[in-house]
Design a protein that fits this description.
alpha/beta; 5-stranded parallel β-sheet; Rossmann fold; 11 strands; 2 domains; about 250 residues; 4-stranded mixed β-sheet; 11 helices; single chain
Length: about 250
């Protein structure tokens, strides 16, 4: 339930348009709802500006659908991440209006999102095509949180001229997310070209000595470009959330 909806309910009670019992029924599942295998945090929007997101990895299809049902029934927007094909099919069957991004492994069902003023756009940059699943997760996350998002893909350091040809697009962004595997060098290069917040996302893409993204993570943590912030390996969702929060603060 969004702050706007709670405020409207309380005003309706104050004006005699809704009785106390009806209001109590509407608030019965606040601040969280017990499902046995999960506790749905219906106050997440009030505290953090966006509803609880379902991390689907490790959950059953039935659990994902049950959690989604309670979130959507509350009127909130739904974002499900790390879904598999069976989960996506089940969610689309229940919510035909759902927006599915199979590459990102996300499902979005539109609902109420608190209005948030943002400035400019978030630019998501990927080093290679193999990094796109993580990059697209960041894109879907930032978009559902109300941001304008653009992408710049396959501009890794092995062909640096591809990136340099797009300098204007880098300069136009308000926040930049850079997604890269292998040695993770791209965020350092981009960080040396721009003066806006940059969030680096290491991916598990690479040969054996990349250690499933550890080499990229360490490379990004040791970046010589000032102000590069790093999230965990393959955490496109975390990068999208961080970029959204930064974009809101810059608008304030």
């Amino acid at each position: 339930m969004t702050p706007e909806r709670i405020r409207a309910l309380l005003e309706a009670v104050a004006q005699g348009q809704t009785d106390v019992d009806e209001a109590f029924a509407n608030l019965a599942h606040l601040p969280f709802e017990e499902l046995g295998f999960a506790r749905i945090d219906h106050h997440r929007t009030m505290r953090q500006g966006f509803p609880e997101v379902i991390f689907c990895e490790g959950k059953t299809v039935e659990q994902v659908v049950a959690i989604a049902d309670r979130i959507v029934s509350s009127g909130a927007a739904l974002l499900a991440t790390r879904t598999n094909a069976e989960m996506r099919d089940a969610l689309v069957a229940k919510y035909p209006e759902a927006n599915v991004n199979a590459l990102a492994r996300t499902v979005v069902v539109a609902g109420e999102i608190p209005a948030a003023e943002t400035i400019g756009k978030i630019l998501v940059v990927s080093a290679g095509t193999s990094d796109l699943p993580v990059a697209e997760e960041a894109v879907e996350t930032a978009r559902v949180m109300g941001n304008e998002v653009e992408t710049l893909y396959d501009v890794g350091v092995a062909g640096i001229h591809r990136l340099l040809a797009c300098r204007e697009r880098l300069s136009d962004a308000s926040v930049i997310i850079v997604v890269a595997g292998m040695e993770g060098a791209l965020p350092s290069v981009v960080g040396g070209l721009v003066n806006v917040p940059l969030i680096a996302v290491p991916t598990s893409v690479g040969y054996g000595a990349s250690f499933k993204g550890l080499a990229a993570l360490l490379g990004m943590l040791n970046s010589c470009a000032s102000g590069v912030t790093v999230v965990n390996i393959d955490n496109g969702f975390g990068a999208g959330v961080a970029a959204s929060k930064i974009n809101r603060l810059r608008a304030g």
